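Mods, move this if it's the wrong board.
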Amino acid sequence: MKSVFGREPSEGSSAFASGIADLTTSLAVIFILLLAAYVTRVEDRNAKPPSPKSTVTTELEHQLQPHHLAVETKSAGPHVLSIVVPDAILNFEFGKSTLLPPAEEFLAKTMPYYATMICGPEGQEVESFVIEGHTDDQGDDIRNLKLSQDRSFAVLVKGLEVIRARSPWAYECFQQKTSANGRGRQDLLHNAVWLPDRDRSRRVIFKIHLRHT
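Not the wrong board. C-alpha cells:
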C-alpha cells in the first residue's frame, strides 16, 4: 500500500509509529492512575473525622433503651455525650426543687450505672459528668436560674445518696467527677412556629465529657 506521497511505508517507520502509540497509551494510563490517587488523598484529607463511638457510648445506648432515651452528640463538641431527660421522667414539685417519687425511682435505677461507667474500667474515657438543669420561660429570669440550679443540685444529692447505699466503692470518685449546673431559661426550646416549647424546655441533661484521644 502506498502513502499519500506515493511511497510505501517502511517496516521501521511502522514499528516506530507503533512504539510511539504504545508509549503514549502507557503514559496516559499512568497519568490517570496518578490523578485518581491524588483525588483520593485530597478527599480523605478534607473528610471530617467520625464522631467517637466509644465503649461508653455503646454501653449508654444499651442502658437507656428501657427509658426511651438517646445519646446525643454535636459536631461542635463530639467529645461530649448528652442524655436529655424530660420533665415527664425526671420531675419536681411545681416551682420547687423537690423530686417527685417517679424521679427518685428513675435516679435509683440509673445513678448506680452512671457511677460504674464513670468510676469503673471504662472511667478512663470519662473526664467529667455534669448534671444540667433547665426551666421554661415562665417567671422571673433570676428565679428560674436559681430554681434550675437547685434542681440540678437535688439530682446530684439524690444520686450521691443512691451511690453511697448501693455502690459505696464509687462514691468518692463520682463526687469528684460530678458537678451540678443550672441554666434557667437560657437554652429555651421552641416549636415549629418558634413559640416556646415549655414542656420540652423543662428538662435535666446529663453531660458526659470524654477525654480527647
